[in-house]
Amino acid sequence: MEEKFKSGFVSMIGRTNVGKSTIMNQLIGEKVAAVTSKVQTTRTAIRGIVNREHSQIVFIDTPGIHKPKSKLGNVMLDTAFTYMNDVDIVVFVIDATSQEIGKGDSKILEKIKEAKKKTILVLNKIDLVEKKENLLQLIDLYQKEYNFTAVVPISATKKENIELLLEEIEKNLKEGPAYYDKEEYTDQTTRQLVEEMIREKALKLLKDEVPHGIYIETEKVKMRKTKEKETIYDIEATIYCVRESHKGIIIGKGGNMLKKIGTYAREDLEKMLDTKVNLKIWVKVKEDWLNNETMVKKFQ
Q1: CA distances from 119 to 84, 142, 146, 211 (A)
Q2: What is the pLDDT at residue 242?
Q3: Domains of the chain listed by start with CATH number
């Protein structure tokens, strides 16, 4: 008997810095979400598509749960919880090294109970857990709080149990059509992918006080042919920051920092677009943009 095709939408939710974006990129096999060790890396809901023989899974990586300190923070929080109600399965990611259910995770559990969705508990970073009994105790704590559809311990960085997680998700999907073309792995535009890539490099390279006060805007993405008939993308983008002092840090001595950000972003973009990239980046100051209604709407 031929296996029926399944499809569905899966929301990934968890506190900041539990590794959701790394998991998403591993599941998809392509970089669609910025990955850094800094908190609040993901600001919008990012879709990634996994095409399997008998299913299509559309993952939605949402902003990490945190205490909002600006209008942007409130929008990010709303985004994370809103998507929970509009999906078929919720993947709740927690840090496997934690020993209790913290405030952030308790808040997520409340929302999961309200949504009453099929939820898979994922314990990430199992490679950092020294004693197996600690992991079992943590699983027991969570299982007393909610009847999870499945519990999957993983290590996103070591790619451990990623396939097992996909199998558990597929098992719990309903019969349905493919929503996207089989060649697609994200619904983000090239402009959005450019912004995500530049922001990731900036987050990795800049001092702690700067990153969350920046956003990237792609002004130009144009494909052309060189004299040698090679394809090249001309891309222009601006990094906006909240203070003049931050602008100096982003540019760096003799333009050194901006050059690094641009070089690393260009290298990744060339791999992703499979063609040469001519990338130009500017830095501008836009004070208090995190509380500016017009700017914040970009992230809704």
Answers
A1: 10, 12, 9, 32
A2: 79
A3: 6-175 (3.40.50.300), 190-299 (3.30.300.20)
